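Quiz preparation item.
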C-alpha cells in the first residue's frame, strides 16, 4: 500500500476489521497516524494501556515487514500467537530467537522474503548476529519497533547492554523510522533512550501514569509472613503476585504459603523453562491463586484480573516498583499494592552493590534513595510516584493510598523550605541532596571540607533535625516545583523560577513528618504485647520461671534453653505437644525433644485451666528446621572445610552462612567449628568471649560488641555465640 493512500484510510474501520475493537484508547490513534506518516515516535504508556497495538496496526497497513525488538521470548510467542489469531495467514507474524530450530528459522526467512510476514519479533541478541543482519538487509523494513525501550538506559530498572547496540545495527540493516515504547521512564531515562536511538526529533506521546483503581500501601516488617497470610486468606480465591529479591526467599515463601493452605507456586530464572511455563499456565488457568516470584515473572503476563501485588521486600528502584504494581487490576477492577519496608533491606541492597563499578554503584544508590523517599514519605503516594515520572498530580488527597486515608498531622514549614532552597543557591546548584542535607545538619566529611561548605552561613542551621527530616523538605520542595533534577548530571538539584520566587517572597508551606518505620515496628510490637490476640503475658511469666528453673538445673544461662522470641511464640500459639513445639520459632526438633516436655505439659495445663480455645487452623505454620543448605553445611563442617569456602560453594555471602548456621544450632543441632575459630582467635580471646556469654543474662550481639568496645567484630562474636550454644546448650 503506497504511503500517499494512508492518510485516507478509515483507521476506525481497520481497527474493527483487524482487531475487533470499536474505538482506540488514549493516544493510540495519534501514535498510529504518526508511525504511518513515517516519523520517529516515542511512546510512554503504562502497563495495560495498549502499547502493542501502536505498532501492530501500522505494520499490517504499511508495505514491508516491521521489525519488533523485544527482550522476552515468552512475550514474543504470546504476541505472535495473538496476531495469527486475527489473520488467516499463518505467516503474518513470526519471531526469530534462540528457541527455534534451524528448519524453523528457515521457514521464518522464507515467509519474510515472500512478503507474507508483516511483523517479525527479534531478540536484541539475535538482531546483532551477522547472519541475521545480512538476511534483514534483503528485507523491505517498514519500521523498527523497540519494545521495553527503558532497557537502553542504565538509569532504567532493567538495563541490558545489548540494547545499546540497536542503533548501529539499524543503520547497518537500512534506514527506517523507529517507534520506541516503554511502560516506565523518568525524564532522565526518556532522554537516554532518545539520545541512544538518535531520535531526539521523535514526537513524544506520553499517557498519564495514574492508575486510579490501584491502592498503594507500605507496611513495616512486623510478623510479616503472618500478616501476609492473613491478607491472602481475606482475599481467598483472588489472584495475586508476591515479589521477592532472591530465589531462595521465593522458594521458602512459596512453601510456607502452601503449608498454610494457600495455592501458591514459585517462579524464578533459576528454574528450567518447562517448570516456569507450567507455573505461568497454572496461574493463568487459575489452578493456583498466588505466584511467588523474582522480577523474572510478569513481563508480558496477560492476566487482567490480578487483584493484589505484594512486595515482600522493597524493590531496587521506583521504575521496577511501578512496573510490578502495574500488573494489578489491569481490567480496571480492584488492585491492591502492598510493600513491606525496613531500612535494613536498603542497607542490604547497598551492601550487594559493593564490588560493582563505581559508576554503577552511584546509579544504584540514587535509585535506592528515590525508593526510600517513596517508602518513608507521609505524602500522597500517588503524588510522589507520578512526580517521579515527571507528571503532576493535582489532587491533594487521592483517597486510595494509606497516607491519604490515614494522614499525619501537618505543620508550618516555610522557614525550613527557605533554608533548603537558599543552600542550593549558595553552593552554586552543583550538589546532590545528600550533600545539602549534611551541610544543613552541620556534619563534616571530605566533600564539605574540600569545598569549604563549613564556612557557609547555613552550615549547621538544621542540626536539630534528622537526615530524614531534611530529605522530606527537599522532596516536598521538588513536588511543589521549586527544584528540578539536572537531566545530564542526575541527582544534582537546581532551583526553578518558582523556587527563586519562593526565596524572595515565602508563603505558607505545610509539611508532614515522614514515617519512621523502625519506631513504628517498636510501637506495633508493644501494641501486640498488650493486645488481645497476641502475647499471653501471664503464660509468658510462667514459662520464663520454668526456663529459669531448667537453666539453673543445667547450670546454663536461661537464653540457652529457649530465647525470648521462642517463649513469645509459645504464648501466642499454645503448643501442647513436642511436635507442635518443634514448629515454634527458634526451637526445632532437637531442642523440642531435649527441653520441650516440661514446657508442653505446662502449656497444656494452662490451656485447660483457662479454657483457651486454640484456633489451630489459624496458627501460622513455619518451615521447622528446614533449609536446603542444612545438610550440606553440616557435612562441610564435619569435614572441617573453611567457612568462606562453604559460603562460596553454597552461593551464600558470609552473613547468610552465619544465619543458616544459627538456624541449625538454635534448633538443637550441634556444629563443631573449633577448627575455624582456632584460626580466627587465639585461646585466650575465645575464653574471654565464652566467659562473657556464660555470665551474661543475654546473648544479644550488640550488647556484647559494646561490652568489648569493638575489640571483636560482629561476625567473631556471632560465631563464638554459636560455639557457646553448641558446647553448653546441647
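Solution:
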Amino acid at each position: 500500500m503506497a504511503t500517499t493512500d494512508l492518510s485516507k484510510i478509515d483507521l476506525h474501520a481497520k481497527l474493527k476489521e483487524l482487531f475487533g475493537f470499536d474505538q482506540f484508547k488514549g493516544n493510540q490513534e495519534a501514535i498510529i497516524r504518526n508511525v504511518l506518516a513515517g516519523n520517529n515516535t516515542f511512546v510512554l504508556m503504562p502497563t495495560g494501556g495498549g502499547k502493542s497495538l501502536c505498532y501492530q496496526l501500522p505494520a499490517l497497513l504499511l508495505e514491508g515487514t516491521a521489525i519488533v525488538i523485544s527482550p522476552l521470548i515468552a512475550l514474543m510467542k504470546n504476541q505472535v500467537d495473538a496476531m495469527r489469531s486475527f489473520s488467516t495467514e499463518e505467516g503474518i507474524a513470526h519471531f526469530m530467537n534462540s528457541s527455534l530450530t534451524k528448519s524453523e528459522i528457515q521457514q521464518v526467512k522464507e515467509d519474510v522474503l515472500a512478503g507474507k510476514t508483516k511483523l517479525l519479533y527479534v531478540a536484541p541478541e539475535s538482531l546483532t548476529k551477522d547472519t541475521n543482519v545480512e538476511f534483514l538487509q534483503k528485507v523491505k523494513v517498514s519500521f523498527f519497533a523497540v519494545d521495553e525501550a527503558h532497557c537502553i538506559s542504565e538509569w532504567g530498572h532493567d538495563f541490558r547492554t545489548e540494547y545499546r547496540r540497536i542503533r548501529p545495527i539499524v543503520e547497518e540493516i537500512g534506514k527506517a523510522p523507529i517507534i520506541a515504547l516503554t511502560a516506565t521512564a523518568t525524564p532522565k531515562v526518556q532522554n537516554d533512550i532518545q539520545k541512544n536511538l538518535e531520535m531526539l526529533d521523535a514526537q513524544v506521546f506520553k499517557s498519564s501514569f495514574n492508575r486510579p483503581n490501584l491502592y498503594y500501601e507500605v507496611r513495616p516488617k512486623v510478623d510479616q509472613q503472618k500478616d501476609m497470610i492473613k491478607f491472602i486468606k481475606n482475599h481467598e480465591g483472588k489472584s495475586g503476585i508476591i515479589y521477592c529479591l532472591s530465589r531462595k526467599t521465593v522458594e521458602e515463601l512459596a512453601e510456607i504459603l502452601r503449608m498454610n493452605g494457600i495455592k501458591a507456586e514459585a517462579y524464578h530464572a533459576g528454574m528450567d523453562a518447562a517448570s516456569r511455563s507450567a507455573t505461568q499456565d497454572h496461574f493463568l488457568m487459575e489452578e493456583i491463586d498466588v505466584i511467588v516470584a523474582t522480577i523474572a515473572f510478569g513481563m508480558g503476563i496477560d492476566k487482567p484480573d490480578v487483584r493484589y501485588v505484594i512486595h515482600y521486600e522493597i524493590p531496587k528502584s521506583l521504575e521496577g516498583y511501578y512496573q510490578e504494581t502495574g500488573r494489578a487490576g489491569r481490567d480496571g477492577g480492584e488492585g491492591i499494592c502492598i510493600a513491606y519496608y525496613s531500612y535494613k533491606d536498603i542497607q542490604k541492597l547497598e551492601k550487594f552493590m559493593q564490588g560493582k563499578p563505581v559508576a554503577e554503584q552511584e546509579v544504584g544508590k540514587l535509585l535506592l534513595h528515590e525508593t526510600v523517599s517513596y517508602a518513608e514519605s507521609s505524602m500522597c503516594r500517588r503524588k510522589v510516584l507520578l512526580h517521579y515520572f515527571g507528571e503532576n498530580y493535582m489532587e491533594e488527597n487521592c483517597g486510595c493510598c494509606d497516607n491519604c486515608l490515614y494522614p499525619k498531622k501537618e505543620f508550618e514549614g516555610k522557614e525550613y523550605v527557605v533554608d533548603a532552597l537558599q543552600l542550593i543557591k549558595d553552593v552554586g546548584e552543583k550538589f546532590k541532596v545528600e550533600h545539602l542535607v549534611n551541610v544543613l545538619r552541620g556534619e563534616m566529611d571530605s566533600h564539605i571540607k574540600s569545598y569549604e561548605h563549613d564556612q557557609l552561613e547555613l552550615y549547621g542551621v538544621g542540626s536539630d533535625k534528622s537526615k530524614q527530616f531534611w530529605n522530606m523538605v527537599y522532596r516536598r520542595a521538588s513536588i511543589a516545583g521549586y527544584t528540578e533534577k539536572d537531566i545530564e548530571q542526575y541527582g544534582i538539584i537546581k532551583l526553578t523560577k518558582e523556587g527563586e520566587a519562593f526565596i524572595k517572597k515565602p508563603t505558607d508551606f505545610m509539611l508532614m513528618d515522614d514515617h519512621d518505620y523502625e519506631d513504628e515496628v517498636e510501637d506495633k510490637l508493644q501494641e501486640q504485647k498488650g493486645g488481645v490476640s497476641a502475647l499471653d503475658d501471664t503464660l509468658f511469666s510462667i514459662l520464663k520461671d520454668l526456663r529459669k528453673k531448667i537453666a539453673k538445673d543445667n547450670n546454663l544461662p536461661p537464653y540457652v534453653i529457649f530465647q525470648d522470641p521462642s517463649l513469645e511464640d509459645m504464648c501466642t500459639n499454645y503448643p501442647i505437644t513436642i511436635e507442635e513445639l518443634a514448629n515454634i520459632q527458634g526451637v526445632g526438633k532437637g531442642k523440642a525433644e531435649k527441653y520441650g516436655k516440661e514446657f508442653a505439659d505446662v502449656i497444656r495445663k494452662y490451656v485447660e485451666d483457662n479454657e483457651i480455645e486454640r484456633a489451630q487452623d489459624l496458627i501460622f505454620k513455619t518451615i521447622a528446621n528446614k533449609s536446603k543448605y542444612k545438610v550440606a553445611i553440616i557435612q562441610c563442617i564435619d569435614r572441617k572445610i573453611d567457612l568462606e569456602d562453604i559460603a562460596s560453594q553454597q552461593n551464600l555471602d558470609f552473613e547468610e552462612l552465619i544465619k543458616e548456621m544459627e538456624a541449625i544450632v538454635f534448633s538443637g543441632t550441634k556444629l563443631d567449628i573449633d577448627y575455624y575459630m582456632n584460626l580466627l582467635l587465639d585461646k585466650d580471646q575465645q575464653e574471654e568471649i565464652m566467659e562473657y556469654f556464660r555470665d551474661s543474662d543475654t546473648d544479644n550481639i550488640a550488647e556484647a560488641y559494646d561490652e568489648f568496645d569493638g575489640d571483636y567484630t560482629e561476625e567473631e562474636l556471632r560465631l563464638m555465640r554459636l560455639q557457646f550454644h553448641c558446647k553448653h546448650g546441647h
